[in-house]
Specification:
This is HNH endonuclease. This protein has about 110 residues and is mainly alpha-helical. The chain has a domain of about 55 residues. Helices cover about 30% and strands about 5% of the residues. It contains 4 helices and 2 strands; from the N terminus they run E-E-H-H-H-H. The longest helix is centred in the middle third of the chain and has 10 residues. It is elongated and about 65 Å long. It starts with about 40 loop residues before the first strand and ends in a 16-residue tail after the last helix. The relative contact order is 0.17.
Length: about 110
């Protein structure tokens, strides 16, 4: 049977320093720091050959999915400014700017 602690220092795990702080990653769309949940989003959809991923809030990703088709996202690619030129996305980013990083809310469904 394996030992839980070493022979020399049975309380070795208690002397460890506190965890190093986690690096704060900004959201690709809104620029706010990401919270405890980071969504790794493909700016160019995988179905369209996209390989790169960017960190985003879940609510920001849902906004993009709601407002753009895969073809439109492919055309914009990694151009955040082009996406922010859309009035609905700009309105959302302005609204969410002062919210907590872990803020979530329901997003309107796609209009088909």
């Amino acid at each position: 049977m394996a030992r839980k602690h070493s022979k020399r220092d049975p309380y070795g795990d208690m002397h460890q320093e506190e965890e190093t702080p986690v690096e704060v990653v900004p959201c690709w769309l809104c620029g706010r720091p990401t919270g405890s949940t980071i969504v790794w989003h493909h700016p160019i959809p995988k179905s369209r050959g996209g390989r790169d991923v960017v960190p985003m809030h879940g609510i920001c990703q849902q906004t993009l999915i709601t407002n753009f088709t895969n073809s439109e996202l492919q055309r914009y690619g990694m151009d955040v400014e082009g996406l922010l030129a859309n009035p609905a996305v700009r309105k959302f980013v302005d609204w969410v700017a002062n919210k907590d990083p872990d803020f979530t809310a329901t997003i309107a469904k796609k209009q088909r």
